[in-house]
Amino acid sequence: MYSGSITDISGVLAGHYTDPEARTGCTVVLPGGGAVAGVDVRGSAPGTRETDLLRPVNTVQHADAFLLSGGSAYGLAAADGVMRWLEKKGIGFDTGVARVPIVPAAVLFDLAVGSASVRPDAEAGYRACENAAETLAQGRVGAGTGATIGKAAGMERAAFGGFGTASLLLPNGVIVAAAFAVNALGDIFDHTTGRKIAGMRGGTVSGVLMGGTSLDFSGQNTTIGIVGTNAALTKEQANKLAAAGQDGIAMVIRPAHTMFDGDTVFAFGTGEKTADLNAVLAAGAEAAARAVINAAEAGA
Question: Chain-centre distance of CA 211, in angstroms?
Fold first, then answer.
């Protein structure tokens, strides 16, 4: 397991809501005072909220929280609870008549694992905020509770996915960290050795896909995550960091970004430090790769 957590960034808190019986849950990351944010959506079956707002040309510059959730599109409702919790704290974009919390969210499909009729809702999102702390559990918790990986030959040959987090410390106190819920169609590999860590038993997903024998798992996968840093970022740079997080996915998940996945990565910078952007991007890809590996290993 790799060390570190996204909560290693000063002021960042994170919390899970986990329903172990229904095998679903959600995870919230609170950057503390808001953070310049970006997004990269590279999978072809995404379920998201507030992603367009994070494009560089659009008005809002900061996000107040990020939500990762199970429950497929139903799980986007958990963001309502995160907004309610933030509103009670007086946090949000000042419109002049009310503060509107900015909560980008992404979901994964776990309905086929536990109960298809129980999904994270507004109460689940609120409770995840109430559970937010400086420590964050890994494995089959939060958004990764019902996650599975390597499903191309059927669920009976798949493996458990999960939630993972990791961080890197760069010179001058710059921290780059990631938190991911891994529910990928593909297998998980160690990017330093090429060793397969987890996934489909009795072969590889790439082999099944290239052999033309894959089952139809449209919309039933997805790796979603957040890459953060205490460095100062512009909105354009935050979007670039989110893209680096997608590179991290591709380093360890094979194949990544398929037509069956909805891979979405958010990114943020809290502005505490100054840093070379290339260093932050390189660390962002590595942190994402490590968080994905931690999710697979902790969820096994």
Answer: 30
